[in-house]
Amino acid sequence: MSKTSKGGLLEPRKMSAELFSLTYGALVTEMLRDYEDPKQVNMRLDKIGFNMGTRLADDFLAKNAHVPKCTDCRQIADVLSKNAIPTYLGNFNHDCHSRGMGAPQHPRGAGEATLNISISFPASRGCCGVPATVSNWGGGDREFSLIIENNPLTELVEVPASLSTLNYSQIIAGAIRGGLEALHFKVYSSVIENPTNTEIKVKFDQILRDNLPAGEDD
Question: How buried is residue 198: exposed, middle or buried, by Cβ count under 10 Å (0-12/13-18/19+)?
C-alpha cells in the first residue's frame, strides 16, 4: 500500500477491551432504539466505519511505514490480516472479569418494543489478542474472507435471536472498505457473525485512478 502520509500523529492511549466493547454495545443499542430496524442500523454502521476508514488511512501508513505498496489482492489481504486489524483491533488493555452488565436501558412508550443487547462477561473466555487469518479465496483471487477469532466488539456481547438480521460488526467491514478506498482500492465488504468468530468478506472491484473519497454523506 502506498500513499503520502501526514506523519507526526500522536499515539493514542490504550482503551480497555471491556470499555471498548461496552461503549460500542451502547452505540448499537441506541441506534436500534432510534431506527428500530436492524437493516437500517447495518447501513449506518457501515457508513460510520467507511468514514472512519478513510480518515485512518494516513494514520495506518504513519504507524506502518515498512508496509510495501500492494499490487494485488493477496498482498492487500496479507496487510489487512497482519497489520491493519492488529493495529486497530488489538490496541487494547485486556483485563476482563467474570461479571455481568446490561446495556443501557431506555424507557419506551406503551406498546413499543424494547430493543436491547445483553452484554455479559463469561469467566471461561479470555480477551487475548486479535488474530486474523485469510481464507475462502474465490473469483480469480479477487474475493477473500478475513477471519477474526477474538473480535473485541463481540467478545462480551450476546445479540438476541430476534436481531438475527443485525450485522453487529458491520463497522469493521465499513472501515476496511473506507481505508482501502482512501488508498485507491474500491472493494465491497460485508460481515458474517459466526458462533466462534467474525468473518469479513471482501471483494475487489477496481483500482481508483482519480480522486480520493471525501467520505459518505448521511
Answer: buried
Total number of domains in the chain: 1
Please list the residues that pair with 204 across neighbouring strands.
Answer: 187
Bridge partners of residue 157, in order along the sequence: 119
| Phi, psi (rounded to 5 degrees) for 201 | -90, 130
Distance between CA atoms of residues 3 and 122, nearest Å: 42
CATH number at residue 202: 3.30.1380.20
Strand 143-148 versus strand 157-158 pairing type: unpaired
pLDDT 10s per residue in the chain (218 long)? 655 444 444 444 555 777 888 889 999 999 999 998 999 999 999 999 999 999 999 999 998 888 888 989 999 999 999 999 988 887 655 544 433 334 444 444 433 434 445 544 443 344 444 779 999 999 999 999 999 988 889 877 888 889 999 999 999 999 999 999 999 999 999 999 998 899 999 999 999 987 555 556 55
